[in-house]
Amino acid sequence: MDGKDFLKSDFGLEAESGRSIDTTVRFAVAHTELELQRKRAIGRRIRWIVVLVPAFFVLVALSTHFASSCTHFSTPSVFANLETWQHHDNASSVAIRKRSPSPQSQGLTLSNTVSTTGSSLSTNPSGTSNSPTSTSSVPQTSQTIPPAPAASNPPVLPTPFPQPFDSVGATTNLSTSSCQAFFQNMTQADDFRKCRPLSLLLQFGSAFIEAQTNLTALSNIIFGTCNTVNSFDSCTQSLASYASQLSTSCSKEVQQSNSLVLTTREGLLNYPILRNAGCLQDQAGSQGFCYVEAVHQSNPADTYLYQLPFGVPLPQAAKPTCSPCGGSVLSSYASALQNSSGNGNGSTDGLKATYDAAASASASACGSGYAQVGIVSGAEGRWQVPLTLSMASAVALSLFMALW
């Protein structure tokens, strides 16, 4: 086939139609070059899609993991300023005490009598001693863990019973009279005092802390927090109502991230969670209260577990004891998290920030069956994964259309 026949068959062109063979050939070459350029452009787009779409999915996966991690550390600023617990071990005693925060000027002193300008707040209206519990010079580790008293044979409780805010030992700035009045009214109200909230005793109970040098006295106090005149449900409702009132009466202090106010609110809302955890007993061992057993141990890791509902994480240096009680406390928290949507279960905000890490550390040290892991991250993942995949699909399609 000569050049003329080739042009006729492949391009439908006639050299005799007024065009020269050279002109026709140049046209054919130009047409071929355009086709090649178009195919190269398509190839480049496909290569970009092949590179960008997997890269996008990788970025989505990383961002989801980062967001999940941030969730565990996005607790309110109060948790960064919470009074920490120290485990003192000396020749005379092993006690868990709170480090006093730095004083703030012109504030409200919460002690036996809380003084303000023109007002005073007495957290002990009976006027009796604020140290109703006896102490012991024998270290807790050398004391015998007393069995938890039976409800049918209750112990003699200290009178007056230890109350929160009996002696915080620091000056705390409450900037509004409404907030001062709230604390005064709450701490003197029968429905508050009769509930004996362990959640707040852990944070603001001086007599409660002092009682930890005597395991028998401590056991009696724990019994008192578990056996209250007002029912569990009634106390849960009362303290939740106080938390709501606090948010209104101390709104300025809440905005200022006042540590006393925010920790008090958490303690009011955490009441049912920490009452359940505090009343646990070591049925297979000492038969005593788990909290008393935690104080008895030289390793303070189990005592740290009672701070998790406040958003205070288990210290990285803590070595889990792997005790049955530690597992029971974590199990009670897992149940609270799994039933957090129900009424009367308390606030799980603090646990959402701390539980998974503590459970993972405990399971790693004590065995996979010791604690339920992934409860918080698993609950988040159930809605995060479908959403993430939908977003990824939509963006990938947009990339494809834009490149094409």
Question: How would you characterize this protein structure?
Answer:
It is a single chain. With 404 residues, the chain is mostly helical. It has one domain. Helix content is 55%, strand content 5%. It has 17 helices and six strands. The strands form three sheets. It has a two-stranded antiparallel ribbon with strand order 1-2. A two-stranded antiparallel sheet has the order 3-6. It has a two-stranded antiparallel sheet with strand order 4-5. It is elongated and about 115 Å long. The chain starts with a helix and ends with a helix. The C terminus is likely disordered.
Gross geometry: elongated
Biggest sheet features: 2 strands, antiparallel
The count of DSSP E runs of length 2 or more, i.e. the number of strands, is 6
User: What is the distance, rounded to the nearest whole angstrom, between the alpha carbons of the first and last residues?
Assistant: 40 Å
- The value of Rg in angstroms is 34 Å
Count of discrete domains: 1
Strand arrangement across the biggest beta sheet: 1-2
Helix count from the secondary structure assignment: 17
Helix content: 40-55%
As a percent range, the share of strand residues is: 5-15%
Overall residue-averaged pLDDT value: 75
Structural class by SSE content:
mainly alpha
The secondary-structure element order is HHHEEEEEEHHHHHHHHHHHHHH
Low-confidence stretches: 64-132, 381-403
